[in-house]
Amino acid sequence: MANIGVKEIKELMTLTGVGMMDCKKALVEADGDTEKAVLILREKGLATQAKKSGRVAAEGIVASVVEGNVGVVLEVNIETDFAANNEEFKAFVNAVAKTIIEKNPADVEALKAMTISGGDKSVEETLQDLFIKIRENMVIRRFQRLEGVLVPYVHGAGSIGVMVKIDTDLDADKVFAVGKDCALQVAAMNPGYLNREAVPASVLDEEKNIILSQMAEDPKMANKPEQVKLKIAEGKIGKYYSENCLLEQAFVKDDKVSVGKYVENSAKELGGKITVVDFVRFERGEGVEKKEDDFAAEVAAMTGNK
Predict the structure, then answer these.
(1) Closest CA to 74 of 60, 86, 64, 89
(2) Whole-prediction pTM value?
(3) Neighbours of 47 (CB within 10 A)
């Protein structure tokens, strides 16, 4: 049996992008022949992609695409920003976005089973084919599909994707600039809610409790009557709305007015009705914990070599 060590495993990992244990097994099966091991891993391409989940895919692209009155905000992750710039990866993301627009899947799993737009294979099969070429773990993480008068915006190279939905009696092209300004606001200020009515009561109760707890720790406030404290807390909740609700935030292009007032003023100028009714904001990799590993130590630990 060939002597298979860290050097051989690392070389195969570099050639294929496959995880350590899979590379070690392939080398054992190939009796140390790297070329044969590459072939073995290619033949097991579907299984290998599934086993690579230990390698975090936190880079990638967030796309915001509209066709007619249907749009989607979609996040597809990959391991490195270098691979995210691959033209085939970008084309895959666009094709997946079109598939969602055309076929309205219920969720990611349903999407994977559908025939990809412009192709004859399923989304999952297309992803697996691309994996063999790019050799990085890829994840279709999430999407949200909307219908109506929609304005998309993508920040940077797909780091943030936003879509704003508008209700209007004006032509869509006339309100596009207003929608774009609102989308820029969403990208920059990251509001959690559309308006104060959208904020759950549980969130408001938590904010009030935090404010009251802070007052209890403040010597100047601790001895004030409870009713006074509650009134102060209610006042501070107003600040919460102005920071977290899109329509109550200060407009980034003119902080003397709120976003809601800007939309209202724009509607008057255009002679019609404009109402922002929904928005979606995805930020690439948010909530994905990136793993920092000592590669040599990890290989040694998993192969039993010191």
Answers:
(1) 64
(2) 0.73
(3) 12
